[in-house]
């Protein structure tokens, strides 16, 4: 299904007076609003193909119905939310969860919906049917060279498929590690992983990037071979200029200062990509901004500071992506909420008075520093984000229109109540 332009127009007209009043106020309060709006229009967030179905836990999975049954239907779903918010213009695929023989057809479909192909994701954390060797004890780190070779070949195959889609980056997340002390020789595991990554790196086409994603724990609970940003950065530095660290907000030990990590990675020119989500405990993969919106704002504040210092374009300099999935929400509603939270945090961070902050920092005026940051964080940025969305042809209130148009009901009618999307 697709949403018709007249439906978006009718919805927008109904809300026009209210929006105009709120936007006029925001514009009067924030003289830099036009500059911010042009940045918001450019800013696009990649949607992971695995977030379109209901995410399960290891205890159960409760499908909401109407889930996409194929890669084409996943793209159709992202097309729907992009139509509504005009900020979800990219898709990130996970191989082998996403399968096709018709690359050109899928590309045409994505193009029709205004979507490009973000980073490709390989999967060596599950065994696939018919696979010769098991990843039970790791993949790129494995003590047995034959297992490593199989995992390397898979990553190179993912690059090949990515080329066919027109992607330009590969994200490698490894579950590799150990569950009990003594199980693994840390140094050998690191060296095996490095050697394996070197082979994958050598297969990257000219303009491609390799993102090394780290994660502190799960599924291994004693050690993870790419367990933190230090280990990821070591790999990225040893591999070369096309290799970068990828930060997933849920992949840290509790209370980690993620905004500081981001700042230093940017300083080193090694921050490549981002997986947005939120968490209370571990890698909860909750809706971005649902738990710690201030942290999200502080991260954006450092991202903007670091990117501006290096002259990196906000929209194209890094790979921006959501990585969340749920048991209790409609996945499309959840994604609309995540994108909105990201756009709000980005806007609030753009509103920070950077010059005044630099002066206050220089004067060690801690109180003033906090006032400056929190003034921006407490600004109601909703009308600014809404204005940017309206100018791009999106809906004033994407979630409300999604519900009014009964999109989920229509997807269930078209696809059935018992469909299951491939993914987590
Ligand atoms: C690992 C992870 C990684 C995977 C995705 C499915 O927890 O964040 O990015 O590829 O989940
Ligand atoms: Mn991730
Ligand atoms: Mn994760």
UniProtKB/TrEMBL annotation:
Keywords: Isomerase, Manganese, Metal-binding. One of its GO terms (molecular function) is metal ion binding. Residues 96-286 form the Xylose isomerase-like TIM barrel domain. It comes from the Bacteria. InterPro entries: L-rhamnose_isomerase, Xyl_isomerase-like_sf, Xyl_isomerase-like_TIM-brl. It holds the Pfam family AP_endonuc_2. PANTHER family: L-RHAMNOSE ISOMERASE. This is Sugar isomerase. It comes from Pedobacter cryoconitis.
